[in-house]
Amino acid sequence: RILLQMGGRGNADAVKDVMKMIVAQTEWKQYFEHFHFAYGFYGPEEYHRWLSDIGFTSIRAELITKDGVHKSREAFAGWFRTTWIPWTNRVPDNLRSIFIDQVVDTYLQQHPTDASGAVHVQMMRLEVEAQKV
Fold first, then answer.
1. How far is CA 118 from CA 11, 67, 68, 69, in A?
2. Cβ 42 vs Cβ 70: under 8 Å
3. Which of 45, 52, 58 is nearest to 1 (CA)?
4. What secondary structure does DSSP assign to 30-87, as a single string?
5. Can you give the pTM of this predicted structure?
6. Distance between CA 19 and CA 22 in Å, rounded?
7. Which of 27, 44, 95, 121 could disulfide-pair with 61, CB 3.0 to 4.6 Å?
8. 24-75 residue pLDDT tens
9. CA distances from 121 to 10, 19, 63, 66, 132 (A)
10. Closest C-alpha to 5, from 127, 124, 123
């Protein structure tokens, strides 16, 4: 029997959209030529099929919306810095903090902090439960 939880289809799409916009229209573009985002965020349909292919019966596979809350701009920047490494590692070390600040500031223009200064990111979790046939 297995129980899995991971990022699912739609996970942090607003952050991904900001990054795509920034790297397509600015001086950062040069660092992202031939870039492929290697993280896969899938949905229940894919997992039902994959589980069947390896001899498991799917009990449940569902997308669950989660509010990713970061206490402050700094906390959000720290999360971005440590989670989105496939993007940030493309930028030279001496420019990385500038890139991160631009992504964070652009995100906050589109998704302002709440009254307490917290930053919210809509996350999508995929939970999968299955058992061996």
1. 19, 11, 10, 7
2. no
3. 58
4. GGGTT-------B-HHHHHHHHHHTTEEEEEEEEEEEEEEESSHHHHHHHHHHH-HHH
5. 0.88
6. 5
7. 44
8. 988 999 999 999 888 899 999 999 999 999 999 999 999 999 999 999 999 9
9. 11, 14, 16, 8, 35
10. 127
